[in-house]
Amino acid sequence: MGAGEVEDVQRDEQLFETKSEGRGRLAYRVFAATVFLSICGVWAYRLAHILSLLFPDYLSDPGSGSGYKTGVIGETVVKKGTTYYYYLLWSSVGMFLAELVFGLYWVLSQSIRWNIVHRLAFKDKLSLRYEEKLPRIDIFVCTADPEMEPPSLVINTVLSVMSYNYPPEKLSVYLSDDGGSKFTFYALLEASEFAKHWIPFCNKFNIEPRSPDAYFAQQRRANVQPTAYGQECLAIKKLYKDMKKRIDEAVKIGTIPKDMKEKHKGFSEWNPNVTKWDHQSIVQ
């Protein structure tokens, strides 16, 4: 096997690609260098300020004629041993320590900014190589109020995660409704039927995004060609619109269709005493 063939094999086995961020790197490094010099200047100034207090000059007291130790702050002479002297000393030490810590933190943070790289994972290769080792995943979609969070919006999230490009036997999706709304349950039943068409459609044509509402919103801005994909897309879109219309109408009139109530015994859990503030645990 030649060197070129070995290189091709290694490229095929790569699970990700690393790219360096080239734009603006030199400008950022110049900026970082100037900031570092400024930080060093602040450290030097603060340290010199502390040293001027710890090791003051010997000045003469004109009144007594004797020498006493003083600290010189700019043009102000501070007598050593006074309360004001210790206040200046310890406040200066505290400021220096704070500036030292924040300065060192800034220096350490440059390790991730000095040479920025981007890694692009090859998801198809990851799936092929580690599909049998992928863990089981439980996804919880939470909602609480069918008025603030319409059921038709909630099930878009549910359908999106149900259609993940992940082994279906290792993926479980749960919808948790803290408000205990029967309309959320009804929307989930409708979504479970629609998912039988939506998920195969997503897998067949590698659809992105996988939220029906977001995907069909994109399609409104594009011309769907009369191909096999176009015909199937229009059929799925019609199914979605019909489902969404049924859910929105049920929420609007406040009643679940009779045929759906008879189809699933789960609706028997709801009675006139059930409210979103007071309801028993309902697991379906």
TrEMBL record:
Residues passing through the membrane, by range: 26-45, 84-108
Q: Which UniProt keywords apply?
A: Cell wall biogenesis/degradation, Glycosyltransferase, Golgi apparatus, Membrane, Transferase, Transmembrane, Transmembrane helix
Keyword Glycoprotein in record = no
What cellular component GO annotations does this protein have? Golgi membrane
Binding-site residues, UDP-alpha-D-glucose: E149, D178
Q: What's the short name of a Pfam family annotated to this entry?
A: Cellulose_synt
Q: Which GO terms describe its biological process?
A: cell wall organization; cellulose biosynthetic process
Q: Where in the cell is it found?
A: Golgi apparatus membrane
* Domain of life, per lineage: Eukaryota
One annotated GO molecular function: cellulose synthase (UDP-forming) activity
What Gene3D superfamilies does this protein's entry cite?
Spore Coat Polysaccharide Biosynthesis Protein SpsA, Chain A
InterPro entries in the cross-refs: Cellulose_synth, Nucleotide-diphossugar_trans
Q: How does it sit in the membrane?
A: Multi-pass membrane protein
- Task performed by this protein: Thought to be a Golgi-localized beta-glycan synthase that polymerize the backbones of noncellulosic polysaccharides (hemicelluloses) of plant cell wall.
Alphabetized PANTHER family for the sequence = X-BOX TRANSCRIPTION FACTOR-RELATED (PTHR13301)
The molecule here is called Cellulose synthase-like protein E1
